[in-house]
Amino acid sequence: MDESKIYKTILELTERLILKRKSQEKFIPGVTRIGYAGRVYDQYEVMNAVRASLDFWLTEGPYARLLEANFRNYYKSKSFILVNSGSSANLLMVSSLISKNVKNSLKKGDEVITPATTFPTTLTPIIQCGLRPVFVDIEIDTLNINPNKIESAITKNTKALFIPHTLGNPCDMELIMKIVNKYNLFLLEDSCDALGGTYDGQLVGTFGGMASHSFYPAHQMTMGEGGGIIINSPQFVKIVRSLRDWGRDCWCEPGKNNTCRKRFDGSWGGDLPIGYDHKYVYSELGYNLKITDLQAAIGLAQFDKLPSFVEKRQKNFLQLYEGLKQFQEYVLLPRWSTKANPSWFGFPITLAKGLDRSKFTIFLESKGIETRMIFAGNILRQPGFTHIDKRISGSLKQTDSAMERSFFIGVYPGITNEMINYMIDQIGKFLRTKI
Questions:
Q1: Which region is the signal sequence (predicted)?
Q2: Is the pLDDT of residue 255 over 80?
Q3: Alpha carbon 84 to its chain's center
Q4: Which terminus, N or C, of the chain has the lesser number of Cβ atoms within 10 Å?
């Protein structure tokens, strides 16, 4: 059998195997776990992964370049750069703000406003880069930063906002952009939970200079591990890619040389001798945060499904919302702006005072319904963050309320109508018993 026939046979057998596995999946109420999130895939992701493994291009390569181009076109952005996680995307965005090659770059001690209800790796880059986080309270029904409290937190040291769209619910970008433009601030969006969502018809992630995405299995699409950065401000394109690629000054794609035509006769600054090999010139304090081409191959198949993934998340969310309206005396249901069309990451529930969240979540888990906290809750109460240098603007009352009374359940596309109805039924059983 020649090579092409072997290749074709491998792919055909892969497809048959995955289709057989998928055909055996079924939901058994109370037995099958309903995840808060999960990977949703079919034969195409696996076949792409097999193709990439047979190509054996282990580092970033042709699949990655195609996926970056797809996202760049999707966002109509200046660039889209793939990285190895959403956390790395956040680190690179903040690191770029302190680059000497950025106009009005941030200096040690400059302040960045961010909500106190957050994910750790939204906050940690601010600290790691020597900047000072300034914490603002959230709105309990959106779980997003309270936009009406941002302006009072601004001082002469405030240089940036880092705003997550919690659980895929877009922040009030109209008011936030007014503040950003009024005070000439950098804006970073943590859009890891919000891929595909819009505010006033504009895609989340396109408002600030940069925005992050995560492609961990919990998110709207996955590559296993992986992330990306939407770059809307052109000054960050070369800087972010350099920071991702060891800090090198060279911009040649993998497998290419001498794109600058000055590889061995250029003058690159610093104290380098003229003609120093451009491939070994470093203009940033960088990392190695690239993905593999195998990840990107999986991501390409997922990208094709993105519209259907978003639609299914929205459908599941609304089905839960309608089903839980009957319990609004006992639970606070989420609110979103009339201008927003969220791509929901999860369905948040905040219990009325007097109800025991631990008993509720333990009950749901015992029935096979996974629950999760609103990430770190009030992150300043987390053991790793109690002694960080910071400033708190005003009260964090709603942040503490979310930490004590809020949690979320899943809406990801693997959840069926039957599962949603089961979730509503079990939530009702608990509330009717405990009230």
A1: none
A2: no
A3: 12
A4: N
Q: pLDDT for 110-122, tens place per residue?
A: 999 999 999 999 9
- Residue 420: band (very low, low, confident or very high) from pLDDT cuts 50, 70, 90: very high
333-370: b or e for each residue (b if 16 or more CB lie within 10 Å)? ebebbeebbbbbbbbbbbbeeebebeebbebbeebbbb
Sign of the alpha-carbon torsion through 174, 177, 183, 189: positive
In the three-class reduction of DSSP (H, G, I as helix; E, B as strand; rest coil), residue 158 is classed as strand
The pLDDT, as a whole number, for residue 200 is 98
Residue 434 one-letter amino acid:
K
Structure tokens at 176: 């936030």
Question: Do residues 186 and 233 make contact, with C-beta atoms less than 8 angstroms apart?
Answer: no
User: Residue 407: exposed, middle, or buried by beta-carbon count in 10 A (0-12, 13-18, 19+)?
Assistant: buried
Beta strands 158-164; 111-115: pairing state: parallel
The number of C-alpha atoms within 13 Å of 414 and in the hemisphere containing its C-beta is 21
Average pLDDT across the chain, whole number: 96
**The two three-digit tokens of residue 22, written as one number:** 């998928």
257 or 211, which is more confident: 211
CA distance 9 to 401: 57
pLDDT at 278 over 70: yes
Query: Which residues are part of the catalytic machinery?
Result: 219
User: What pLDDT is stored for residue 435 in this prediction?
Assistant: 58
Domains of the chain: 53-293 (3.40.640.10)
Least confident of 19-23, 167-171, 257-261, 314-318: 257-261
Please tell me the distance from the alpha carbon of residue 33 to that of residue 38, in angstroms, as a whole number.
Answer: 11
User: How distant, in Å, are the alpha carbons of 65, 229, 326, 415, 423 from that of 345?
Assistant: 27, 19, 23, 13, 17
- Tokens linked to 144: 């997003």
User: Which one, of 15, 12, 34, 116, lies nearest residue 427 by Cα?
Assistant: 34
**What is the pTM for the complete model shown?**
0.96
Residue 195 amino acid letter: L
For the cut 80, the answer to whether the pLDDT of residue 84 exceeds it is: yes
Q: What share of the chain is helix, strand, coil (3-state, %, to 5)?
A: 40, 15, 45
Residue 287 C-beta-side C-alpha neighbours within 13 Å: 14
